Amino acid sequence: MSLRTPATGHVEDVSPGRGTLPPRAWYASSDAASLSLNGRWRLRVSPTADAEDESFAEPGYDAGDWAEVTVPGHWVLQGHGAPIYTNHLYPFPVDPPHVPDENPTGDHLRAFDLPGDWPAGGGAVLRFDGVESCARVWLNGTELGEFKGSRLPHEFAVGHLLEPSGNVLAVRVHQWSAGSYLEDQDQWWLPGIFRDVTLLHRPEGAAGDFFVHASYDHVTGEGTLRVDSDVEGRVTVPELGVEVAAGEPVTLPVEPWTAETPRLYDGVLATAGERVPLRIGFRTVVLEDGLIKVNGTALLFKGVNRHEWHPERGRALDPDTMREDVLLMKRHNVNAVRTSHYPPHPAFLDLCDAYGLWVIDECDLETHGFVEQEWRDNPVDDDRWTPALLDRAARMVERDKNHPSVVLWSLGNEAGTGRGLTAMADWIRDRDPSRLVHYEGDLGCRDTDVYARMYLPHAEVERVARGLDGGTLRRRRLPLILCEYAHAMGNGPGGLAEYQELFERYDRLQGGFVWEWIDHGIRHPELGYAYGGDFGEELHDGNFVCDGLLFPDRTPSPGLAAYKKAIEPVRIEAGDADGTVRVTNRYDHADLSHLEFELSHQVDGRTTGTRRLAAPPLAPGESAEVELPEAPDGGGLEVQWTVRALLAEDTPWAGAGHEVAWAQRTVAHRTPAPAATGVRPRTDGDRITLGPAVFDARTGAVRALAGVAVRGLRLDVWRATTDNDDGAPWQPDTRYGPLWRELGLHRVRHRLEAVETDGDALTVRTRVAPAGREAGLRTAYRWTSDGTHVRLTVSVVPEGDWRVPLPRLGVRFGLEGCAGDAVSWFGGGGEAYPDTGPAFKDLRWEASVGELQTPYVRPQENGARADVRWARIGGLRIDGDPEFRFTARPWTTEHLDAARHLTDLVPGDTLWVTLDHRQHGIGSQSCGPGPLPRYFLWPEPTEFAFVFSAPDA
Ligand code: GAL
Asked: Where is the Beta galactosidase small chain/ domain (predicted)?
């Protein structure tokens, strides 16, 4: 006798389920009635799959004492249990298809009446758009069936069970099931009915499944439309004068659909009983000459990987949030989305069609945890699981096949290789030969039409581009895309511009998709945003879940600004001839007639005048040189030009004037910062004065500059390590964050060697070194003054055996009582590190101290403004010689370094300022390569200077 109750046998059954209808196209009918069953449901959560019997599904069951939950939603985000975050480890023993006895199970109940105008006759379908991870469903006490495949639709025929009123829908949802083995994506585990539940009336003669085939012949300029339909019907497209029977092709001149020119034609499929709206985009996707081409032109993906995320609702996204994602992408020059790692809410694809984004639609499949056992027992290479894999492939393709934005189907992510994947690829190709197939784990490219890799270093990308990487014959004939690159965790990613340069240089490279779109932080009352481990998980991967270009609340991070700059569709640069600017169209399909160009000049960072610049409406790939008018005379101040490409007219995704691309050049340099000499230091008791500076006579420490009290000014080499400095443990390359800490760069000591007054200079000589090591930095601070300005020249000479670059090289100091002051400067407007810029223009800026902090979910080095010519901070003017970076914070670097969440950072009233001569690059080593060698900050003899004065001296 089996000891397992048969009622839960389906939980560990590898089959996709039973009782559901065959998958079909997703659509919202124009005229058939529907009833949303979203809203408040009754909920009872039990600790195991079989703690409670199924009597709750019986009519008349009294659930009055149950909790309530919002559907769509996850019960763990609504006060019942807790979320769990793991990257690739299964949070349960790998014992397929078994799941733990502790299997939180949410019984959901919802009573509903049919609306008064619900049509008599016909049938009805109950649709679930997403339930994690396994559901068993009853209507009015009759069991409908059960299903797995969390981010896929499942439908049941229910017409025969509906009552005009008092219907009771019961859904038992198990957190863990055999399906969980197929859903090991790097994200929170979040059970629940997290997408819509809808009752759809199916009139007599209703449409069934249909497939819109709309191709475009770029040679003739004609499109061919054929709508195959399970049910007889007619297809009309009024704008094109099309009226044909379903199944019948029609060819006629059309405007094509591309992500840059998302031309859609509204049509209708009318069957005897129903009208279905169609949004038709004509485009043809092929693999030709080893390249992915749409309408005859090779694409360059400037993409992002998008998980569905909302900081309070998890993967239950509302329409506004989806729209916001699309608008933010378009406004940041993103042209493609990989729906990592599952089909998104169907409404998201409608938005991609309408606003224009290329989509790689990915199947809900990942078995990454099996890597821990060398992929032994991997479900994708085990025939018993193949029906489940095919079911997932079919549910994706059938649901999404009518979206012009979808150009590639992806088999899934990080699932190794195996017969199941091949079966999926074969099925997809057979069902939809009009698109290409993507999958990353298949190095031989047996199952794919594109060679996809993740996190390849620049040099490796170039090797592939030049065909030097070997591989199977099939692979060598395919284009490379980086389906993930530039890991956007914390501060960074660095190196975007250099990747983009490669993508544009080599045809074989068709771009990439930054990992990833948004941080999956969960709003938390004490911690601000929670990440892995904050819910007491047994296994977790910390803040690896916060690696997006957006913060959890969808505020763009500096990384998104850097990406926008790197992928600008228009390149603006100084022309070959003096006084000209060269404009290049880097769109694949659009000309530049939708843009206008604006020229301005700046003197000392301040704009003196703005005018239109006439640029021709270049075709894709073309460039032209445009003459610039003469620049104003700066009279010793720096003079720059700025050229901006702006939307000429409103578009659906941004208004006229929205900036698409820009460039700046300095045409006359500023006169260097004053040498500031001539005044001699004077010793007076325990003080030395030098012009407007006061020092401690014994230690040489500066006490005041231009009347402003200064605390603890000294050499600084430490930064609160970034996620990219710390790197991921599996990275094979040297990770400097841990080495810096091991060397003790976060606790260097400063030994005073001499305080010398010599002629008109005060020189303080020190040696800066960590305990336990011989390596050190001999550091001299040389102060001079002209009576108004005080110049500090710092010279640093490394001694001993240095094997690591420095995190930063500069000085830091505290300004008491200044943490509330605004800061103004001439230099880069936003956060920038050596390899993350230049995303922000060099202009005059002003910001509060709060605005200077970048709120990375796990606190770390942030906020540096780069290329700063001068700054006004806390009552001081600081001129750089050469230009410098600064940060200004109401806490110390040590506090920043120790904090785990933003709420650990408590502002004091001292403003801590760092003035950096240089910083080490950022890179992407939290899951990719470190900074390029050119961005390393190796210790070497160095000298740099700052000139301090009163702000209006
Ligand atoms: C990839 C994986 C993603 C994510 C990323 C790191 O290997 O496909 O899902 O885990 O690494 O953030």
From this structure: 689-949
